[in-house]
């Protein structure tokens, strides 16, 4: 068949009935389209045999499929349009004749379409959350802390030793002017105050609106004053203002620093104590008032230069306040004295001195048990009190140790240790000699006043620009060395345990 087709190409064509032959010219430019793409290209050429007649509209070119690769078509001049086509994995640009689109009257650019969000099933509209401010967070934290401390105070009161709060740290700008008449409503408005006086106190009592009031409250305050005078007469200063609210509710409502678990508040820089009346609980009022009155005198004493800052070491301030508070029970002693006599105190092994005559020299020290006064001179018997391990003095005397103890739930033990340390400093020899009290006075004066600074070259006293004598403050360790001849804190701790174990 292949040879036959080749032979037919050379056979001349004869037309029956006509002698001349008709020659047909086939343009050399026309080639058979190899694909739909070539066909589309040739259709857009004017001289192409596949082009549409001039008198007719160009054939409608079908819209090519949307390319896989997103690309905007680039418009060309005239009626042609460059269209990207993806065939067989390759992209080709094709020019196609299209009719120009009629312009719209109010054509506006259409914004880019955003993906429609997934619509959740219809539900009831929930309440919009309210953003908590810093004030609300602080109020919630304060309320939570108040509830916690109220429960703790109830437990402590049931155990015998109630722990009072420290004195309020008010700013010196709130101190009343000494040149003006004192107006109680300027500091505590909203309450009608009835003024009265005693030997050492200016008392302002809330006007009662019915109910029963405790009689002779001024006598209670004066009893506390006399107790302090027996222990720290050199620290006592001027008159003290006392504000007495009618009841607990008024105390919480009108006193800014009042807490639900407290009975009284001391403001040392203002020289004020705030309490509330609670008929039938005179003994409790005596204890709390004596504690807060101690804060007034000690912190004013240690702040001789009236800086408005609390200068007293915390352990010394709180220990002395607890000791005076316990004296309000009379000669029998209070709960702190009872614990001193009955509990079993243990020393931290890390602070015990090495015993060179013992095989325990290099560790594994066992604290020597404390023998209470009631069992001294008798045959040792079973312990009546629970064991209490005291903290190392080096850590305990650091500022912030009370907060650390509070975080560990050891607040009662912290106050007990402060009480024992101050009791030892007031009476290190265990006797009744007045010299013991003189050592404690010297110790506190050294911390409060410091030591006069002298020029090392000339030996003369150094004065500041205003002509006042310059004093170098004493650290607690240096004051202990000067007054008690303890070389360091460890020596103070060793002598304390000898006293406690007698």
Overview of the molecule:
This protein has 502 residues and is an alpha/beta fold. It contains 14 helices and eleven strands. It has a domain at 161-175 and 183-425: 2-Layer Sandwich (Zincin-like). A five-stranded mixed β-sheet has the order 3-4-5-7-6. The protein has a two-stranded antiparallel sheet with strand order 1-2. Helix 4 links the parallel strand 4 and strand 5 (240-245). The longest helix is centred in the first third of the chain and has 26 residues, at 134-159. The relative contact order is 0.06.
User: What does the average pLDDT come to?
Assistant: 73
The radius of gyration over CA amounts to 50 Å
Termini, distance in Å?
A: 137 Å
Q: Can you name the CATH architecture of the domain at 161-175 and 183-425?
A: 2-Layer Sandwich
**Biggest sheet architecture:** 5 strands, mixed
Number of helices: 14
**SSE series:** HHEEHEEHEHEEHHHEEHHHHEEHH
Task: State the helical fraction.
Answer: 25-40%
Range of strand content: 5-15%
- The CATH topology of the domain at 161-175 and 183-425 is given as Zincin-like
Strand order of the largest sheet: 3-4-5-7-6
Instruction: Give the class-level CATH name of the domain at 161-175 and 183-425.
Output: Alpha Beta
Regions with little confidence, pLDDT below 50 for 5+ residues: 1-17, 26-30, 69-78, 356-365
Q: What class do helices, strands and sheet pairing give?
A: alpha/beta
Total number of strands: 11
**Which term fits the overall shape?**
extended
């Amino acid at each position: 068949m292949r040879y036959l087709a080749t032979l037919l190409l050379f056979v001349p064509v004869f037309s029956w009935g006509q002698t001349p032959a008709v020659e047909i010219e086939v343009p050399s430019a026309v080639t058979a389209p190899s694909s739909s793409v070539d066909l589309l290209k040739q259709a857009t050429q004017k001289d192409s045999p596949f082009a549409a007649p001039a008198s007719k509209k160009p054939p409608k070119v079908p819209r090519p499929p949307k390319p896989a690769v997103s690309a905007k078509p680039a418009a060309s001049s005239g009626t042609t349009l460059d269209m990207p086509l993806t065939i067989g994995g390759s992209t080709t640009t094709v020019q196609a004749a299209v009719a120009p689109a009629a312009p719209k009257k109010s054509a506006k650019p259409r914004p880019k379409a955003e993906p429609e969000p997934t619509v959740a099933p219809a539900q009831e509209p929930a309440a919009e959350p309210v953003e908590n401010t810093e004030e609300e967070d602080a109020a919630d934290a304060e309320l939570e802390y108040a509830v916690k401390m109220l429960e703790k105070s109830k437990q402590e009161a049931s155990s015998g030793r109630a722990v009072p709060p420290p004195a309020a740290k008010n700013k010196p700008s709130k101190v009343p002017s000494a040149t003006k008449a004192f107006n109680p409503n300027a500091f505590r408005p909203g309450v009608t105050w009835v003024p009265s006086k005693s030997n050492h106190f200016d008392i302002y009592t809330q006007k009662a609106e019915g109910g029963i009031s405790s009689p002779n409250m001024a006598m209670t305050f004066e009893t506390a004053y006399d107790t302090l005078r027996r222990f720290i007469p050199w620290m006592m200063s001027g008159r003290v203002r006392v504000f007495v609210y009618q009841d607990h509710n008024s105390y919480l409502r009108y006193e800014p620093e009042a807490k639900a678990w407290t009975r009284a508040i001391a403001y040392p820089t203002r020289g004020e104590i705030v309490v509330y009346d609670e008929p039938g609980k005179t003994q409790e009022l005596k204890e709390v008032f004596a504690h807060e009155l101690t804060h007034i005198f000690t912190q004013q004493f240690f702040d001789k230069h009236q800086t408005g800052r609390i200068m007293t070491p915390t352990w010394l301030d709180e220990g002395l306040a607890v000791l005076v508070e316990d004296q309000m029970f009379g000669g029998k002693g209070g709960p702190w004295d009872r614990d001193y006599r009955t509990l079993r105190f243990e020393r931290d092994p890390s602070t015990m001195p090495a015993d060179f005559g013992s095989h325990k020299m290099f560790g594994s020290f066992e604290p020597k048990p404390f023998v209470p006064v009631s069992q001294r001179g008798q045959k040792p018997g079973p312990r009546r009190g629970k064991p209490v391990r005291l903290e190392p003095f080096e850590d305990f005397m650091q500022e912030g140790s009370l907060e650390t103890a509070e975080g560990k739930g050891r607040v009662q033990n912290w106050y007990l240790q402060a009480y024992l340390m101050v009791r030892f400093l007031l009476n290190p020899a265990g006797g009744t000699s007045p010299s013991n009290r003189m050592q404690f006075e010297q110790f506190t004066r050294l911390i409060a006043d410091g030591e006069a600074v002298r020029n090392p070259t000339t030996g003369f006293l150094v004065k500041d620009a205003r002509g006042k004598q310059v004093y170098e403050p004493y650290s607690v360790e240096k004051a202990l060395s000067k007054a008690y001849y303890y070389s360091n804190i460890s020596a103070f701790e060793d002598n304390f345990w000898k006293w406690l174990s007698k």
